[in-house]
Write a sequence for this structure.
């Protein structure tokens, strides 16, 4: 850890540990009831900046981090048919971004398209259904789907 992040971490630990010491500090950090992926500090929105968002989630004992970490899933898709030269990658990329899916899409030398997509189960199921139809000028013969552990993609891109 860098010295500055060690100081911030120590301050955060001190706040959490002092929760029971003063009536004013009773449960200063809690989950936002409207969105449990965010925190409140004395009923005001809290932004925690660190090397990763998961540290803050694990430190809050009210936060169901197992559910949070399990929510993210990844799928590997192999799409065959007339899927190259018809705008499939561009359309797949736009569709993924619109659905909040992260990952990448690329053409394979076999004439098929390979996609790694990451999101919630609902997002991925809807995306796979879109891939089975493809863009207007394409023809999808099959979509084979495999799952793998999330790798935390930051965006969705077209690879060449």
């Amino acid at each position: 850890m860098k010295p500055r992040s060690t100081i911030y971490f120590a301050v955060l630990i001190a706040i959490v540990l002092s929760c029971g010491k003063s009536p004013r500090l009773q449960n200063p950090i809690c989950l936002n009831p409207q969105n449990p992926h965010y925190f409140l500090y004395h009923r005001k929105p809290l932004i925690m900046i660190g090397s990763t968002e998961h540290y803050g989630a694990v430190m809050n004992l009210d936060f169901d981090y197992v559910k949070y970490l399990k929510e993210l899933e990844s799928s590997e898709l192999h799409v065959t048919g007339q899927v190259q030269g018809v705008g499939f990658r561009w359309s797949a990329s736009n569709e993924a971004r619109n659905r909040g899916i992260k990952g990448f899409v690329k053409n394979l030398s076999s004439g098929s398209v390979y996609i790694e997509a990451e999101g919630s189960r609902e997002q991925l199921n809807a995306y796979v259904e879109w891939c089975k139809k493809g863009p207007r000028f394409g023809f999808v013969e099959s979509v084979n789907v495999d799952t793998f552990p999330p790798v935390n993609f930051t965006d969705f891109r077209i690879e060449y």
